[in-house]
TrEMBL record:
Species per Swiss-Prot/TrEMBL record: Paenibacillus baekrokdamisoli
Molecular function terms, GO-annotated: DNA-binding transcription factor activity; transcription cis-regulatory region binding
Highest taxon above the source species: Bacteria
CDD domains in the record: HTH_LacI, PBP1_Qymf-like
Protein name: LacI family transcriptional regulator
């Protein structure tokens, strides 16, 4: 395996000069850069990133832990986090926790061992003390863990208001809200809080259903929605906590012969691309995934550089009305 010394001998310069090129420090002529990179390619030299990070005390790697990369919302957020990390000279180390507490702990230990400069947490299964003991710059997504760890969230309460008011405005008389599990300490619960306040103030008949604690189970969604219409066949409006669940409601309406939006009106949440690709298109509360990704990277880098950052970061949502209402 080639070493820096081999590169230096090949180019005819000192090891220090090659090191300056690799670390992009000090004055380096374009000619020297070209010769070093050509020699690296010819000798198939692979820098030892862990060793370099120990020397520089900076790896330019950000860790990202999310619950499920296959979920379209988290897939979109991950895309933008990687995009803005790369634009700022950072690489991303992606971890898929599947909402497994042990797996999340193992990933955190791995990220610390890999000398990452900071961690963006989109999965939150552990106790508060487990997060505060990490001792790295951190940003959390959609959960306020402590007063000291910055978090980013869309305006969940406003989203719940927009969705519920739209269904009432469209004439719905009995509205179902299919929420995420309300036992989890997530800011997404504010969607449910807004739904309850609006629905009770307007005196509208309603039901609330919760998904399971254990992640994003599409088979469970199918069973939940099927049972909902069996037990409450007079439901004429549904506010789903994700576009994936809204799509399942749409599928079940088709199966049992209910027309959308004539018989049942549906509002989803997230604003993923799926919602506009199916027919009828799903009305949704769009979360600003691009802005979430950009802000997550910005807050991490500012902390890495020793700057103070705001702890609460709430981004606006937008109602996108399509054919399902």
């Amino acid at each position: 395996m080639a070493t820096i010394k081999d590169i230096a001998e090949k180019v005819g310069v000192t090891v220090t000069s090659v090191s300056r090129v690799l670390n992009n420090r000090g004055y380096i002529s374009e000619m020297l850069k070209k010769k070093v990179h050509e020699a690296m390619e010819e000798l198939n030299y692979q820098p030892n990133e862990v060793a370099r990070s120990l020397i520089r005390k900076k790896s330019n790697i950000i860790g990202l832990i999310i619950p499920d990369v296959s979920h379209p919302f988290f897939g979109e957020v991950t895309y933008y986090i990687e995009y803005y990390a790369d634009k700022n000279g950072y690489k991303l180390l992606l971890c898929n926790s599947k909402l497994n507490k042990l797996k999340e702990k193992e990933y955190i230990n791995m990220l610390k061992g890999s000398q990452v400069d900071g961690i963006i947490m989109g999965s939150h299964t552990m106790d508060t003390k487990d997060y505060t003991s990490i001792k790295l710059p951190m940003v959390t997504l959609d959960r306020q863990i402590t007063d000291t760890i910055p978090y980013i969230s869309s305006d969940n309460y406003k989203g719940g208001e927009l969705a519920t008011n739209l269904l009432i405005k469209k004439g719905c008389k009995k509205i179902a809200h299919i929420s995420g599990n309300l036992h989890l300490n997530l800011l997404a619960k504010l969607r449910h809080d807004a739904f309850k306040k609006v629905i009770l103030n307007k005196g509208i008949e309603h039901i609330v259903l919760q998904t399971d604690l254990n992640g994003f189970n599409y088979d469970e969604y199918e069973q939940l929605v099927s049972a909902m219409f069996q037990e409450h066949p007079d439901i004429d409006g549904v506010f789903a906590s994700s576009d994936i669940i809204a799509a399942q409601v749409l599928k079940e309406c088709y199966r049992i012969g209910k027309s959308v939006p004539q018989d049942v009106k549906i509002v989803g949440y997230d604003g993923i691309q799926l919602g506009q690709l199916i027919t009828p298109g799903i009305t949704t509360i769009k979360q600003p995934t691009k802005d979430i990704g950009k802000m997550a990277v910005s807050l991490i880098i500012e902390q890495i550089e020793g700057e103070d950052v705001p702890k609460e970061n709430i981004l606006p949502v937008k109602l996108i009305e399509r054919q399902s209402t």
